[in-house]
From TrEMBL:
Species per Swiss-Prot/TrEMBL record: Guillardia theta (Cryptophyte)
Protein name: Pinin/SDK/MemA protein domain-containing protein
Domain of life: Eukaryota
Amino acid sequence: KGMLLSKEELIQKVLESTRASFQKEIQKDENLQRSNQKRDEFLRGFQSKIDAAIKKERTKAEQTVNRKRAVLEQLLVDRAIQDQVSTMLDHSDHIDRCPSPVLKKTSQLTTGLVPKFLAAVERKRLFLKGIQDRARSPTCRTSGIPSTHLERMNAVKERRERMEEIRSSEIRRKQESKLRTADEALRKLALKNEERIKMSHFKEAENQAKKAKLRFAYQHKLSSHI
């Protein structure tokens, strides 16, 4: 009877120690699962922040490019207007070189709509000549400037436009480089996340194997004591 009691006590102690070890393993497993969940939540939040930053940088780059494009389009429109005015002034110079008596003689020889057309041409010639005279006058604010000065101003304007184009292309290149760097960092982070998830699955499988091994050892001890 004493031998049976000592065996029962031994079995009870083995059961208690095995139960305690199982409880510890279960507690470790639960702690590991909670830490994995916290880590996954943190990584998801960090990834969303990276996505928001990339979206913000891309929007800023698009706005900068659109603004530069609008400025360049406006400069092109201004240049087209300037070319048109220059063409009109050249045309007025050509009309100014034509002898006025020829127009008068032609208007005397023709009848009907032709004199009206020639009179309109004459009025336009006088109007353009007035514009040209005002532009050449020293009191004019904008272009009573010598032609060499005008050419210098046009050269400065063209150089400024070229610098703006170079600067806009440089900004676009830097923004594209930033976007490529951010995409590469995001891809590396995704790979790390996949590796960590694989490691967590591997550790979980390892814990399950340990539990099965402990369970087998426990059953083996029980069968050997019995």
